[in-house]
């Protein structure tokens, strides 16, 4: 028996040794993205209101009255009844290919579907109806897999005008390093790939939002523009002139008559006193990183996430003094691990720090933030501070927290799977 064991061990060592020789540091694991496409005819007929289903990849969250809308990245929206925050209930799934954002006003829901704007009547939440679709109003919109190292087959789809990209299939593959280009820089031409010759009030989105309703206007950012829509007639929005805003625009936040845009290159501040034509006030450049922004008083709070093709190597929270709106100045920086969304309620700031969990700080003194809570061992992505409680989404799980004087506590945890 001992001799058999020795022979088997010898074979295992021999096999591992051969594998090491074959690899010899020449191979690496890559995240490879392959485009998921539809014909344009199929794409425009594919919206449906379906029964509840399991989530595939949780994205952003949006709250409206007693309902929560959770984006399923590039697939659509999960509609949840949150009348009882201790026990939320799924109602339906809005299948919207290529969807990443929504915004709601007076029971009318606006959603992007890659290049198109889709309008829904949600006055009867159990019988949602599509009422309109504006085609090709987001010509610069493309769902881009920034988390991927390699993007394959894009040239084929770029020249096939009958196809539209509605998502990506991402898998880990081991490849020879010297034969694997990983430069997936996306220029303006590629951004234009998908182009072709209580009842009422508005809801609350998180800092990762690309949609924002202000009065009778909907502002929607794509990678380099502010798309402006007049929504005086909610079910028949008017596509107004786009405003060029730069490159790599990612998020939008509103305060009064100002818009704050987060991009991979900086924060841009726009004046919307004339709502049809946002005009640039100033900008704050921070290098290259993925970031959203929220504003409170004289300060803008910006999370920067390095790595994953975001450009920067380090991640952190930047606090920018905007007391002089025409001259924003960096006041303080705090290190973070992999921050995504953030939110503010009174003197608390909530930061989704990826796999490092949800962090809650007292921001009374922005030069000396004090950690109040750290909910670790959970994945965190987007957060929405409501009047009475906090919503947070991460890895297909909806968390709700109650506010306390110097902390927050978990109210409920609801899996969308």
Properties at a glance:
single chain; 417 residues; mainly beta; five-stranded antiparallel sheet; disordered N terminus; LVIVD; LVIVD repeat-containing protein
Descriptive overview:
The protein has 417 residues and is mainly β. It has a domain at 26-205. It is 9% helix and 47% strand. It has four helices and 34 strands. The chain has a six-stranded antiparallel sheet, with no helix packed on it. Strands 14, 15, 16, 17 and 18 form a five-stranded antiparallel sheet that branches. Strands 7-8-9-10 form a four-stranded antiparallel sheet, with no helix packed on it. A hairpin with a 3-residue loop joins strand 15 and strand 16. The radius of gyration is 23 Å and the shape is globular. The termini are far apart.
In short:
By secondary structure, this protein is mainly beta. It has four helices and 34 strands.
Please state roughly what percent of the residues sit in beta strands, choosing from under 5%, 5-15%, 15-25%, 25-35%, 35-45% or over 45%: over 45%
Largest sheet, if any?
6 strands, antiparallel
Alpha-beta classification: mainly beta
User: What is the CA–CA distance across the termini?
Assistant: 49 Å
Q: Taking strands numbered 1, 2, ... along the chain, how are they ordered across the largest sheet?
A: 2-6-5-4-3-13
Give unreliable regions as ranges: 1-21, 183-199
The percent of residues in helical segments reads under 10%
Number of helical runs? 4
Tell me, rounded to a whole number, the average pLDDT. Answer: 85
Q: How many beta-strand elements?
A: 34
The outline comes out as: globular
Q: Whole-number radius of gyration?
A: 23 Å
Protein name: LVIVD repeat-containing protein
Organism: Spongiivirga citrea
InterPro entries: LVIVD (IPR013211)
Pfam families: LVIVD
């Amino acid at each position: 028996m001992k001799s058999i064991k020795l022979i088997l061990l010898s074979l295992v060592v021999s096999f591992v040794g051969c594998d090491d020789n074959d690899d010899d540091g020449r191979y690496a694991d890559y995240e490879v993205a392959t485009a998921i496409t539809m014909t344009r005819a199929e794409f425009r007929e594919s919206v449906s209101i379906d029964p509840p289903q399991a989530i595939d990849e949780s994205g952003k969250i949006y709250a409206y009255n007693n309902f929560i809308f959770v984006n399923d990245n590039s697939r659509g929206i999960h509609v949840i009844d949150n009348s009882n925050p201790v026990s939320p209930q799924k109602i339906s799934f809005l299948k919207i290919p290529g969807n990443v954002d929504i915004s709601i006003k007076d029971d009318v829901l606006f959603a992007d579907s890659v290049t198109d704007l889709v309008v829904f009547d949600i006055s009867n939440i159990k019988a949602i109806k599509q009422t309109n679709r504006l085609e090709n109003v987001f010509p610069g919109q493309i769902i881009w897999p920034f988390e991927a190292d390699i993007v394959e087959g894009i040239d084929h789809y770029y020249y096939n005008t009958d196809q539209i990209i509605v998502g990506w299939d991402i898998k880990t593959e081991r490849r020879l390093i010297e034969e694997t280009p990983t430069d997936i820089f996306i220029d303006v031409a590629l951004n234009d790939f998908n182009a072709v010759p209580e009842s009422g009030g508005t809801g609350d989105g998180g800092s990762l939002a690309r949609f924002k309703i202000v009065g009778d206007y909907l502002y929607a950012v794509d990678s380099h523009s502010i798309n402006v829509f007049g929504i005086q007639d909610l079910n028949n929005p008017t596509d107004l002139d786009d405003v060029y805003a730069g490159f790599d625009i990612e998020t939008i936040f509103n305060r009064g008559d100002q818009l704050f845009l987060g991009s991979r290159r900086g924060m841009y501040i726009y004046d919307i006193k004339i709502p049809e034509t946002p005009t640039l006030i100033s900008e704050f450049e921070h290098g290259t990183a993925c970031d959203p922004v929220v504003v409170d008083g004289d300060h803008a709070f910006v999370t920067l996430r390095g790595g994953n093709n975001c450009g920067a190597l380090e991640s952190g929270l930047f606090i920018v003094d905007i007391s002089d709106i025409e001259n924003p100045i960096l006041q303080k920086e705090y290190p973070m691990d992999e921050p995504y969304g953030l939110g503010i309620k009174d003197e608390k700031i909530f930061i989704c720090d990826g796999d490092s969990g949800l962090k809650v700080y007292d921001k009374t003194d922005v030069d000396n933030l004090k950690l109040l809570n750290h909910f670790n061992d959970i994945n965190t992505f987007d957060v929405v501070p409501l009047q009475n409680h906090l919503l947070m989404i991460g890895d297909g799980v909806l968390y709700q927290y109650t506010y306390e004087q110097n902390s927050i506590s978990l109210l409920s945890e609801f899996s969308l799977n």
